[in-house]
Specification:
This protein is of the alpha+beta class. 20% of the residues lie in helices and 40% in strands.
Length: 186
């Protein structure tokens, strides 16, 4: 995982949590590590491997005529990074930006192309070591999120963590049209 950028919105405890996430990342195999985060009242997890960095929410530049789940772009050290509103993409009720709101920057690959994307989440929780045998298959009913977006469900400390298949949620093929639009703007 990369670096953490704080522009003053995260308190010392939140920074310590993120620092401990960074140190945990180095101690466990990537295959079983999941970055957990919250959207609304639900906890989600994604495999840590594509996570490049976690940054504090910053003002986004909106791009006209983009789908509702594409919140805008940020300039990350000279690179334009599209930001996906994960609540909107998962058809969850809206959320408000707070001091704990974060952008998780991911590097995704498809065929011969890699792309940096950010996802907007309410807060980042922790990195968990979840062995594959502790992840149950995605339920076919009763879940608000599209079942093809779910890799599985893990029971952690008496609560469920919804493990997302981030490659499906953030389909590069689907988002490549947006990238073409961005290249036309810049």
């Amino acid at each position: 995982m990369g670096e953490i950028i704080n522009n003053g919105g995260l308190n010392k405890q939140q920074l310590a949590t993120i620092d401990s996430i960074s140190s945990l990342v180095e101690d466990v195999s990537d295959e079983d590590k999941y970055l957990t985060f919250v959207i609304g009242d639900k906890t989600f997890g994604v495999n840590i491997e594509p996570v490049k960095e976690i940054i504090e929410y910053e003002r986004l530049t909106r791009i006209p005529m983009t789908p509702g789940h594409i919140r805008g772009v940020v300039n990350l050290r000279g690179n334009v990074v599209p930001i996906i509103d994960l609540a909107n993409r998962l058809n969850l009720s809206g959320h408000e930006i707070s001091k704990r709101t974060c952008l998780i920057i991911l590097q995704l690959a498809a065929e011969d192309e890699t792309m940096d994307l950010g996802i907007l989440v309410d807060s980042v929780s922790e990195v968990l070591d979840i062995p594959a045998e502790d992840i149950e298959p995605a339920p076919s009913f009763g879940v608000e999120v599209r079942s093809d977006f779910i890799d599985g469900m893990a029971k952690i400390k008496g609560s469920f963590v919804i493990i997302l298949d981030i490659q499906k949620v953030l389909s590069i093929q689907e988002l490549s049209q947006f990238t073409d639009l961005l290249q036309g703007v810049s």
